[in-house]
Write a structure and sequence with these properties.
This protein is an alpha/beta fold. Helix content is 31%, strand content 14%. Strand 5, helix 6 and strand 6 form a beta-alpha-beta unit. The longest helix has 20 residues. It binds pyridoxal-5'-phosphate.
């Protein structure tokens, strides 16, 4: 546990990850505490985006599918993500969005569980995860699919033999609270329940061992800690033991065992490619592919360790500032219970966030009254953390959040 009495300079001088910051393009004068929502741009991603647009697409046209391996990108990117989440390269594929991938998994998961119809999730899960289950519920009858969304404290008591699938997000997007994947997966399996984990707020910043933990399926995000750019494609993990047993419902041609036979009958690939649906978004996926190279020489344990230190340093400084007494920390303080973000409650959270942004500190706001700070360890310094708390202190002591300009709501909050 770090405390704020150690100077930021000393912490920065001891930071083994400090050189990574040079691999990102970051604007001058901005402290970015929102890498958990949209990762910043790695230099390699910028270079690749130009290469794809200015050379591959423009000069090599359709021959690029072979020449630049566009056709293999979903598998290549999946294989790059695999070691970062404790999976085999053949168990992960990059495609579509988290939402779409969750639909595929919930629908095929129900088919794997004849006689069971219930999907168990958490009421304060990320809304899209719940919406996708609700959408599935609408196209099936209630005898075929029923979503049960319970409070976090009740999850374990609902793990009974009538549940088909348990689907949860490892790190809660509001509070940063972490689920113990290993323990919950084990408990679910004891009752014959399949598990689907959403790793959106954890992949790339938390140690994850999907194979060791015996996870069945997972999804995760390309544009958060993996820094793949706005709307970067997501990924799917499916444990190898399931590959020959699945009926992926979005049976598009790219998931066909041999798409270029153009056969009128669908026959799904037997490997991870069965999760593909249509043509991959090549430009986005190529950019994500390059962005992932930031991780080439990193240990996730080191990444996690610095993320916790940054957050501890921030929380300690906030707790020592009288001006910040009104900010109520709702994130767990224990390391094993907390992801890579801290959320503070305040009735003016939205306006405080806008004031921070006006001063060059980008954080974000989540309804109804949360100010959320993300601690991406690959580009943040301890000095920046210190500086951001000092700006926050000024905003609070001068009550800048009362200004009308900071209280006007924008479309994206
Ligand atoms: C960010 C996030 C998503 C995003 O889903 P998309 O369909 O890729 O937009 C889904 N689930 C969780 C838990 C998230 O944090």
């Amino acid at each position: 546990m770090i405390n704020g009495r150690i100077s930021a300079e000393l912490l920065d001088s001891r930071d083994g990850l400090s050189a990574k910051k040079n691999e990102f393009v970051l604007p001058e004068g901005v402290i970015y505490l929102d890498g958990n929502s949209l990762g910043p741009m790695p230099r390699a991603a910028q270079i690749r985006s130009r290469e794809v647009v200015e050379n591959q697409w423009s000069n090599d046209l359709i021959t690029s599918w072979n020449k630049h391996q566009w056709i293999d990108l979903p598998e290549l990117v999946g294989a790059k993500i695999a070691p970062l989440i404790g999976a085999k390269p053949t168990e992960v594929i990059c495609c579509d969005s988290v939402s779409v991938n969750l639909f595929k998994l919930l629908a095929l998961g129900l088919q794997l569980q004849p006689g069971r119809t219930k999907i168990l999730s958490q009421r304060d899960n990320f809304p899209t995860d719940l919406y996708i289950a609700q959408g599935l519920q609408k196209i099936l009858s209630s005898e075929q699919c029923e979503l049960i969304a319970v409070d976090e404290a009740d999850i374990e008591s609902f793990l009974t033999e009538d549940i088909a699938i348990l689907t949860l997000t490892q790190v809660n997007f509001r509070s940063g609270q972490v689920h113990n994947i290993k323990k919950l997966t084990e408990k679910a399996h004891q009752k014959g329940i399949l598990v689907i984990w959403d790793l959106a707020h954890s992949a790339g910043v938390m140690p994850i061992e999907l194979d060791q933990w015996n996870v069945d399926f997972a999804v995760g995000c390309g544009y958060k800690y993996f820094n793949g750019g706005p709307g970067a494609p997501a990924f799917v993990f499916a444990a190898e033991r399931w590959h020959s047993k699945l009926n992926q419902p979005l049976a598009g041609w790219m998931g066909h065992i041999s798409p270029f036979d153009f056969s009128p009958e669908y026959e799904g690939a037997q490997n991870i490619k069965q999760f593909l649906c249509g043509t991959p978004s090549v430009i986005s996926m190529a950019v994500l592919d390059a962005a992932l190279d930031v991780y080439r020489d990193l240990s996730i344990d080191d990444v996690r360790c610095k993320a916790l230190q940054l957050a501890d340093f921030f929380a300690f400084q906030v707790s020592q500032s009288n001006e910040l007494d009104d900010l109520v920390l709702i994130s767990p303080t224990k390391h094993e219970l907390r992801g890579s973000q801290l959320a503070y409650q305040h009735s003016y959270a939205y306006a405080i966030c806008q004031a921070l942004i006006a001063h060059g500190v980008i954080a974000d706001f989540r309804e109804p009254n949360l100010l959320r700070f993300g601690f991406s360890p690959l580009f943040l310094t301890f000095s920046e953390i210190e500086q951001s708390v000092s700006i926050l202190r000024k905003i609070m002591s001068e009550k800048e959040y009362l200004k009308e300009e900071f209280n006007r709501r924008q479309k994206v909050t």
